[in-house]
Inverse folding.
């Protein structure tokens, strides 16, 4: 595929602006070949106007038609072959095996949503007879409720999953499945990958007879592009995965619009892991190795990366082995120079906090895995130790007692996940911990690791603020579709509904 | 019952403040007997702290326990007998027959939610096996999703339904059913009715062993009380029924909190009714009479009051008969002096707009039923004609053609309901109208009237902004419960879930 660096607006590939930027190869710090053009205000407005126009056709497509569209996207993505794998790997510094796995997940996700909407009960149909209205034949008039599409959706991709949380990722798929056109803001950290996948979606739209404007993609390295998109009156919802600062800024814009709209921003968290006493008996080395692998997976660049763990201050075998494991792991290359810099600053700040132990070496260069230990008392005094440092590090909080562990759990803010490692006896003994964590997270894991968010019907990848801006939703799994729908009911129509 | 005029905070009946106000009898303009005390900041904070504390117990009550609580509330409300009917009628100027009907609806609503949560599938359970995590027996670990309660909810009652949309109304019932404690801001237009129902709820809570603080009620005639409530960090959602100004102000406060929370404000609309050509053939007099009854029901003080209708400019038989019917109807007494004043101002403003016909008399005094007619062209030039004037009035927009009718429909903002009167042939001919209205409302009615919102499983009493602040929800019907829940999933727990 010959890359253009231009906007994909409906079927048009255009660039009217003069502001340009380049992608970047994290491995060598060099810009990538293609020049990308920032979308102009007029281009953004045209993409949204086309989406708004497409909505009137697209919202009435049959479920099976949209399912075919999603499946065609999957086929088109696979048809990009090794070129897509190479480009995504080049732009993200993630190894090709990981990108291949991510492509598999992206394609499976498209197919899962296609299957999901082929079952017509996905619209949550509910019927009730009325007491006050009769039909001409004297029967009670009926009320039929179902979910319908909200309208055009603006989607912002994440840097850390250039396929699965980007152009054809969970937000786009669930919006398209619901019947909502998508205007996608390409991520400037992998613009070439974005163009490739965007064009695959346009090919699929054309093949399956979808209306022009059902999908558009706009580029931009500045905040202006996303800000204009979110404030456009025809945009009816926003999907975002990324930083707290970015997600909260979009939320603040959206709720201040003359017509406020929902924003589903998944902003990450530290996903605390609790190692209870029974978990460590006879297997602390094995657990330390598994935990070190979870902390450093994908250079620690996972929304569900366990950046915080809590255990007894007597678990020295575990923490010693964890330090040894993390120290032995290689320094990785992060997604962008900015993320690398933020990681270094974050670790250096953590190391400057009084009352901490730092059993892993720290050169100050690169994405070196890192462990910091502190007491519950000190962690409660320094809440910044519990905040996310995006990357391959974790902070261990050591409790002197069960009560101290619970007191730390009680003051946690919202997280995507929390995890408990223990025996069934631990679980009974620490029932209060389960109870507390249930109020703090979207997913509670027992004897597993939070990384590795499988796409299925039951998944919840969400959680109370500040993990997301809307705890009533998930951005992974089929129930993600209901972020982009609303209920309507039809009363007294002949044949029941329209 | 001896009224106290005080706050109900958990089991305590207290008044620490010195600011007082009185209820008001609309029929004679006189204050009612009891002196009510505005809640102090400390009282509000105590009510929320108790609710927050109660949440830890209440969220774990069994569905059958909460169902018994709801049923006990119904019993306690009925036990108030004629005293409640008389007080609600006195404070609202609504006739006793209407209040009796509203009590029936309130009690039936409590029992419907009790039945609903007795069926354990109300939590929307979803299960999926995992590929990456195994249980000790080698089976795949399971992921179980379900809905759980959000936390303490602040509820604001409406003046126009002193029972069904007030203390034990739809918002309170759905929050309590979900497992959320409620702090209720009593409406200053019917504070005595509020105290009576609030004490019925507290009696029911005590009888059924619910935790202290599961329900509290605070009084206030000033905005301070509600503003403090919505901004309290332990409040996790807000339910509101009332004016656009009031609902939007609470929304604006809630989204600017350090931790933003959802606000479900039902702010009313003009609920356009379309009379298509076939509907009027041979039955325009009958339709005019039914429509006049819908416009003036409850002195026009319904959220779903049809304040706007659209028909052909040749439908003069219909409009003439409608004018005759409305002219013949008595002038009613409105809920409050403020509402009466707003109605008079609204009608006088409408009458001052150029290009309107005013076929009903207008004395300028009281809630006199009113009809105003205008052309589509003039209505599009004067959007204020399509805005809500709360009371027994309606604006008829007369179209010269089908295209003109559709162009008017296209520019409608969000409404709670829209209605189409016509034959099946009209419905086929005006398929575009059905399509347009589907994007504008929460409920689309055929050959019925929008007033009379039945409480059942399929009802949607909601709609796109500005009808509500959250089109993804309904404030009537059993799906209203999901305003106060969020999904969580449990991964890998022995026995599946906790």
């Amino acid at each position: 595929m010959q890359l253009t660096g231009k906007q994909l607006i409906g079927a048009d590939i255009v660039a009217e602006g003069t502001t340009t930027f380049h992608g970047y190869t994290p491995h060598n710090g060099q810009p990538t070949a293609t020049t990308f053009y920032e979308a102009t205000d007029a281009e953004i407005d045209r993409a949204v106007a086309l989406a708004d126009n497409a909505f009137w056709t697209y919202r009435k497509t049959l479920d099976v038609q949209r399912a075919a569209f999603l499946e065609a996207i999957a086929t088109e993505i696979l048809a990009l072959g090794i070129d897509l794998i190479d480009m995504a790997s080049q732009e993200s510094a993630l190894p090709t095996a990981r990108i291949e796995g991510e492509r598999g997940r992206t394609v499976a996700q498209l197919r899962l949503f296609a299957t999901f909407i082929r079952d017509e009960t996905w619209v949550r149909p509910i019927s009730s007879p009325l007491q006050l209205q009769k039909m001409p034949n004297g029967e009670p008039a009926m009320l039929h409720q179902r979910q319908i599409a909200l309208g055009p959706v603006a989607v912002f991709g994440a840097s850390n999953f250039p396929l699965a949380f980007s152009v054809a990722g969970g937000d786009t798929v669930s919006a398209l499945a619901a019947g909502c056109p998508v205007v996608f803001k390409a991520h400037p950290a992998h613009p070439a990958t974005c163009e490739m996948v965007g064009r695959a979606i346009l090919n699929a739209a054309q093949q399956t007879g979808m209306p022009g404007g059902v999908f558009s993609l706009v580029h931009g390295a500045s905040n202006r592009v996303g800000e204009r998109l979110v404030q456009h009156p025809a945009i009816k919802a926003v999907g975002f995965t990324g930083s707290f600062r970015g997600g909260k800024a979009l939320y603040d814009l959206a709720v201040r619009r003359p017509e406020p709209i929902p924003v589903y921003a998944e902003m990450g968290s530290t996903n605390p892991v609790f190692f209870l006493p029974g978990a460590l008996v006879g297997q602390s080395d094995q657990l330390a190795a598994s935990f070190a692998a979870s902390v450093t997976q994908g250079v620690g660049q996972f929304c569900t990366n366990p950046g915080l763990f809590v255990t007894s201050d007597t678990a020295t075998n575990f923490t010693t082995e964890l330090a040894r494991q993390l120290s032995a792991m290689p320094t990785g290359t992060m997604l962008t120079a900015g993320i690398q810099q933020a990681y270094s600053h974050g670790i250096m700040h953590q190391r400057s906090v009084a009352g901490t132990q730092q059993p892993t070496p720290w050169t100050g260069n690169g994405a070196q895995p890192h462990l910091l230990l502190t007491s519950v008392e000190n962690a409660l005094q320094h809440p910044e130790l519990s905040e996310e440092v995006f990357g391959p590090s974790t902070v261990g909080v050591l409790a002197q007692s069960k009560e101290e562990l619970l007191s730390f759990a009680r003051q946690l803010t919202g997280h995507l996940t929390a995890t408990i490692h223990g025996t069934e006896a631990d679980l009974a003994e620490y029932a209060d911990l389960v109870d507390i964590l249930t109020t703090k997270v979207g997913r509670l894991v027992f004897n597993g690791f939070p990384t590795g968010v499988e796409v299925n019907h039951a998944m919840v990848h969400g959680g109370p603020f500040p993990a997301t801006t809307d705890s009533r939703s998930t951005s992974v799994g089929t129930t993600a579709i209901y972020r982009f729908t609303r209920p309507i009911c039809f009363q007294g129509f002949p044949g029941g509904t329209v």
Summary: Chain B has two domains: 7-267+468-491, 273-446. The first strand of chain B starts at residue 7 and ends at 9.
